[in-house]
Specification:
binds flavin mononucleotide, alpha/beta, Rossmann fold, five-stranded parallel sheet, 8 helices, 233 residues
């Protein structure tokens, strides 16, 4: 199984260790990125990705390494420490750059067959809203199966985490890793993903206010009989 692990932080703290622990339980094929080390250009709000195409983003080239790995992976793992109840700024910035991949615009068909995991740690609280920050993007990219791991580590680094807590983390991570292995290659979108897809399909067919989106949906055959979760005939 191919895994891409995208860390919303440069350092190897609790969040990183949990992400790495999960990945290693699943596969040896892990491609790892750190933000902002591997992508640090801030979205300038030019909207070229929406109104023209992704290639017009001034930061198109600097994202390609991560995006190629993202599209090729069977499993996407996003990690972020909780910073004031939300994702880190570098993770948010990376997700902002992928707005054009949302279902309302031009989702990549490969996403509809992947699994993903959001991982966050906090000293005490804020994992739910932080994981939601990441899960929102994953869901609207089209990913049908998203797991969330939020741990209150009561520490500011991995060395400060107690051995009891580490045992609890190990158990939780092992359980999720088994589910992911079992479901690899078998996931299909549920009612929520399909429901959004069909609403977007209706918008593209009937209203189509953004020309590049309409063109994309038409070319993909999604306004007719093709579906992103099925192999193209
Ligand atoms: C800027 C900043 C903001 C933080 N905000 C929160 C917070 O809102 N809630 C919380 O419980 N911990 C907060 N923390 C603590 C970290 O989320 C916590 O220590 C986390 O486990 C660090 O993960 P790491 O070891 O991967 O860096 C914050 C830490 C920093 C540096």
């Amino acid at each position: 199984m191919k895994i891409v692990l995208i860390n919303g932080q440069n350092h190897k703290g609790s969040t990183y260790h949990i992400g790495r622990m999960l990945a290693e339980k699943i596969s040896e094929n892990i491609t790892e990125f750190f933000l902002p080390r591997d992508f640090s250009d801030y979205c300038i709000g030019c909207s070229q990705c929406f109104s023209v195409c992704a290639q017009k983003c001034p930061h198109y080239n600097s994202q390609q390494k991560i995006l190629n790995a993202l599209d090729e992976a069977d499993l996407i793992i996003l990690t972020s420490p909780v910073y004031v109840y939300h994702v880190s700024a570098p993770m948010k910035n990376f997700l902002d750059h992928q707005g054009h991949r949302w279902m309302v615009h031009r989702p990549n068909p490969s996403m509809f067959r992947k699994q993903a995991v959001c991982i966050s740690t906090a000293a005490g609280a804020g994992m739910r809203s932080t994981n939601k920050d990441m899960a929102d993007s994953l869901f609207f990219w089209g990913i049908p199966k998203i797991y969330k791991i939020g741990i209150a580590v009561q520490a500011v680094n991995w060395d400060g985490v107690t051995s009891e807590k580490k045992q609890y983390i190990e158990k939780k991570v092992t359980k999720i890793s088994r589910k992911i292995i079992h479901r690899n290659g078998k996931v299909i979108p549920g009612i929520k993903t399909k429901g959004f897809f069909y609403i977007m399909r209706m918008i593209q067919s009937k209203f189509g206010w953004c020309e590049p989106d309409v063109k994309y949906w038409t070319e993909m055959g999604w306004t007719k009989k093709e579906r992103p979760w099925k192999e193209k005939k």
